[in-house]
Specification:
Elements lengths: L31 H10 L4 E6 L2 E7 H10 L7 H4 L13 H11 L3 E5 L5 E6 H8 L10 E5 L2 E5 L4 E3 L2 H33 L2 H11 L12 H22 L3 H17 L5 H6 L8 H22 L2 H5 L1 H31 L5 H20 L7 H7 L2 H14 L4 H11 L2
Helix pairs in contact: 1-2, 4-5, 6-7, 6-8, 6-16, 7-8, 8-11, 9-14, 11-13
């Protein structure tokens, strides 16, 4: 069946600017040992030699190795061994032109410069070969986010898919999910107390109704009750997110599309659907380590709040170290489990199409805007956290207006 949500129009011509990588260059007055270290961390057959942002030469790996083999303490600066007439390519060089340049130079990498010899980065022969073979994955890391309007995707400089409205709605959805999960859990516990008259249920309902995320934990045995309330709120939030229309499936489609890009698979519905729903850079992993750390350290604080815990402080400290080690060893598997079973669900064809369309848009924009430098500020902005935070804050101001009539209802259940 034809997938009408994916625009499979021909991509613009791939150029050196799209395949650009930005390893650290070496200055002409640097020592040879520093150049060897840079080559070890980014092996590419040589190093661009740059002064004041301008390319002044290329240091070949074989030349560097021969010099250090003859004299490991060679005092000559890099500039004396660099080839000042090395071949460089322009950012607008096409794939056939790049293939010809690599045939001529017989190199693993070539520097990319502007007409004025300003250094932009390098292009790898392996990347050119992959692009010639139809694997259009961008060399930059891809990030993304699930939104109610579909998948949002970015490589740090350009983005595609759901725009700022979608990201703001994600913030609204997260705030609303947290509010609804807290409210629903309060009503469930209050209703259970109304039927069973168990004091613990009433205490949990009252604690959760006060927004436990902002309350200090009590000392002593009461802490266990409050810790249980926090765990119940977290579980309710995750379950609501898991079964919310579009969000769980869109989250899975985002991961599967990024996995396909990073694995060099074609962006087809069939190939993307085969990809795993778990991704190692998902924010769920950060959330999992935060949750494990908070709950574990709270238990330690509970023990220390008792006379027995203070009496055996060295033992408690050893236990705390083991807890930290356990978190370090388990947060990734736990985050992967949460992704697989809680924060994602099998994506529908429409949701996968949304991920593919977002990736195609990032590719198109990368090809037409290849030379923008990847800065930390641009990457942070492109992550989309600002509009998500705006949506979350706006929803946080609006939702409390609905609480007055609902509070009156649940208070009648716990009388």
């Amino acid at each position: 069946m034809e997938n009408r949500d994916v625009n499979l129009e021909t991509l613009p011509a791939i150029t050196a600017g799209y395949l650009l990588r930005t390893p650290t260059p070496v200055a002409p007055d640097e020592v040879l040992g520093k150049a060897a270290f840079l080559l070890r961390t980014a092996p590419m057959g040589g190093l661009p030699v740059v002064r004041g942002g301008m390319l002044v030469g290329w240091l070949d790996e074989a030349v560097l190795t021969a010099a250090l083999a003859e004299n490991p303490d060679d005092p000559r600066p890099v500039g004396e061994l660099a080839d000042p007439a090395g071949l460089a390519v322009a950012p607008h060089a096409t794939l056939p032109e790049l293939a010809d340049a690599f045939r001529y130079a017989d190199a693993a990498a070539l520097p990319v410069v502007t007409p004025g010899s300003q250094y932009l980065g390098i292009v790898l022969r392996a990347d050119v070969a992959a692009a010639l073979g139809g694997r259009y994955g961008t060399p930059r890391q891809i990030g993304g986010m699930a939104t109610p309007l579909g998948v949002y995707m970015t490589n740090g400089t350009v983005s595609g898919g759901a725009g700022w409205l979608g990201l703001m709605l994600t913030g609204v959805v997260l705030a609303t999910t947290a509010w609804v999960s807290q409210l629903a859990l309060t009503f469930v516990l209050a209703g259970a107390y109304h039927l069973l008259h168990m004091p613990l249920l009433k205490e949990l309902a009252q604690f959760i109704d006060q927004d436990p995320a902002y309350l200090p934990l009590a000392a002593g045995p009461e802490c266990l009750r409050e810790l249980l309330g926090l765990v119940l709120v977290m579980l309710a939030f995750m379950l609501l997110f898991r079964f919310m229309p579009r969000m769980g499936g869109t989250h899975a489609a985002e991961h599967q599309t990024i996995n396909a890009l990073e694995a060099g698979e074609p962006l087809t519905p069939e190939a993307v659907a085969r990809m795993p729903r778990v991704h190692p850079r998902c924010g769920t992993n950060l959330w999992s380590i935060g949750m494990l750390g908070y709950l574990s350290l709270t238990l330690v604080a509970l023990v220390l709040s008792t006379p027995l815990g203070r009496a055996y402080l060295p033992i408690v400290g050893t236990i705390e170290l083991w807890i930290v080690l356990a978190i370090v060893l388990t947060w990734r598997p736990f985050g992967a489990w949460l992704q697989q079973h809680i924060t994602t669900r099998p994506a529908s064809p429409r949701e996968i199409a949304s991920g593919i369309a977002a990736a195609r848009e990032v590719q198109r924009r990368s090809l037409t805007q290849p030379d923008r430098p990847l800065t930390l500020a641009r990457r942070v902005w492109s992550m989309g956290l600002v509009p998500v935070a705006v949506g979350f804050i706006v929803a946080g101001f609006v939702l409390p207006w609905l609480e007055t009539p609902l509070d009156a209802l649940w208070h009648s259940l716990v009388k």
